[in-house]
Amino acid sequence: MKDSLPPRALLPTLLRTLLFPLLAWLGGIPGVVGVGPVHAQALPVDVLHWWTSASERRAADQLSAHLLANGVQWKDAAIPGGGGMAAVKVLKSRVLMGDPPDVAQLIGTTLTDWADGGLVLPLNTVATRQKWTQGLFPTVMDLVTYKGEVVAAPLGIHRINTLLYNRRLFARLGLPPPKTWDEFEVVARKLSGMGIKPLAWSDEPWQMATVFESVLLGEAGPALYRELIVQRKSTAWMDPRVEQALTRLRWLRNTSGDVPVERTWPDAARELWNDGAAMMIMGDWAKGELMAWGASAEKDFGCVAVPGTQHMHLYSVDTFAMLLSARQREATQEKVAEVLAGAPAQLAYNRIKGSVPVRRDMDVSSLDACARDSWATFAAPRSARVPSLAHRMAADEATKDAVAQALWRYLSNPRMEATETQRRLAAVIRAPNADH
Ligand code: BGC
What we know:
single chain; 436 residues; alpha/beta; 6-stranded mixed beta sheet; 4-stranded mixed beta sheet; 12 strands; globular
């Protein structure tokens, strides 16, 4: 008995492998919006991604159900690990061994390396047929277009500069959620005085980098942020506003005590849900996770932009690339792109994932308040839309990892000065061929 899985643990697997396909075949899965009857002979595609938390898994199941209803069977190749650190490594080794998945979660600038290598199926035909240029946000269209070819199917837009707060704890304090760092400090002091951790934190380098870029955007503003992250001007990294962001990052980290806590992001979110912490700075996938656990965006938690980043959207866009292989699945891969970028899959998937649809031609009024705000901010002409470095929107895998590592070293060593870290960041982020 010791080795057998408890029935509760078996349930998700049973649902996925038996019940979902059966229900979908019968004509619809409860909660799966707009999924019709299933084609008799579904064609399999191997999908490599890093969605393994409760909400990520459910969101992937939605996509899978929509595909099944359109004659495509999702063969799951999930690789656990927040931020996709492990998935990207597995993907590389599969490609090197001549066994690429048919569909891979490849996002941001990393897409271009794969497209340059001739490994990605161009999706221009689908994009033209579905009028992506008219229907999708221009920023999203730019991200999936490389050298005139459409190289990926967009799935959803995450907002990184999200501050989630626990409504119960804030109600007890009688305070509004902080809009400025001064307000944040007042709230943090009150919470600490009551023995409550102000911020759910993890010392995993990619999570630190995720918090840092939001803080940096707030301190630096969009113009300097672009110089630092998009143009990657190394001289700009010595700006006092970067020092200020690093100092604030250390202060935020220290609100969680001295002992390093490297834990997964769902574990950090769990602390917020259990009333162990009052706030969390994380991409809005953490909101999706809270909702998957039964939390309501109206009653249990709320979200606001990280202080200083109102009307700014620090984005990470999830995309699937279709990889070429000897299996020659092009027609099926095009089908995948078409179904996933279509309005029904977009709404159903993003509702669970915590992100928002990539389409500007959709009605998002049925989404939660955080999502509506994210979508409206992304859509507003006057908003600043800036790419996430920690989530591969602005630099390659190696640069992103080097930045996260530099931040980790800074936060793990209280004696390291912010200015020393600025110099390190300037060096690792230096744009290729830069002369500054
Ligand atoms: C992805 C999200 C994912 C998160 C945590 C991000 O890089 O864009 O889809 O939920 O990592 O793993």
